[in-house]
Amino acid sequence: SLAVLQALEDGLKKADADPSVKAVMICGENGKFSAGADIRGFSSPKRHGVALGPIVSLIESSEKPVVAAIEGVALGGGLEVALGCHYRIAHVKAWMGLPEVTIGLLPGAEGTQRLPRLIGVPAALDMITTGKHIPATEALKLGLVDEIVEENTIEAAIRLANKV
């Protein structure tokens, strides 16, 4: 939603400007990282404000380490947010993917560029062109996530953020 995008932008800018902040952790709420955009918004008139692509670029360009704590799902734009982060930790039961292709849309926040750089062209093409969801264990093998945990993902991400 626009409110989430605005909160991400505001929070990142505030963290980058605050010398007492050493790292940033991005998580979802209620056990889900992000299921991506609400496609009903695609048919509404163009709204002014923040867009996902520039927010993901802002995350990626942060001088402070940004860690994604992925629980539940990171799909579509949610996965693209995670791809912009410097590190990704996922709960063992998490799933990731770019399902928008199954309804005729291409990932629009540079996921098609970031994913191949991270996991290689063959695996990325498979995910991008099929909309396939992968479990955290496969994401770890591919290099999409840096670590998987069975415990509290947020606490693990905070530990990693403090370490780096």
TrEMBL record:
A GO biological-process term:
fatty acid beta-oxidation
* Record bears the keyword Oxidoreductase: no
Q: Which GO terms describe its cellular component?
A: peroxisome
Spell out the protein name for this chain: Peroxisomal bifunctional enzyme
* One of the Pfam families matching this protein, by short name: ECH_1
Q: Which reaction does it catalyse?
A: (3S)-hydroxydecanoyl-CoA = (2E)-decenoyl-CoA + H2O; a (3Z)-enoyl-CoA = a 4-saturated (2E)-enoyl-CoA; (3Z)-hexenoyl-CoA = (2E)-hexenoyl-CoA; (2E)-hexadecenedioyl-CoA + H2O = (3S)-hydroxyhexadecanedioyl-CoA
Asked if the Swiss-Prot or TrEMBL record annotates the protein with the keyword Plastid, the reply is: no
Family annotation (SUPFAM superfamilies):
ClpP/crotonase (SSF52096)
**Organism of this sequence:** Falcunculus frontatus (Eastern shriketit)
Q: Which UniProt keywords apply?
A: Isomerase, Lyase, Multifunctional enzyme
Range of residues in the leader sequence: none
Q: Which gene encodes it?
A: Ehhadh_0
Can you tell me which family this protein belongs to?
In the C-terminal section; belongs to the 3-hydroxyacyl-CoA dehydrogenase family.
Under Gene Ontology molecular function, one entry of this record is: (3S)-3-hydroxyacyl-CoA dehydrogenase (NAD+) activity
Tell me the domain of life. Eukaryota
What InterPro entries does the record point to?
Answer: ClpP/crotonase-like_dom_sf (IPR029045), Enoyl-CoA_hyd/isom_CS (IPR018376), Enoyl-CoA_hydra/iso (IPR001753)
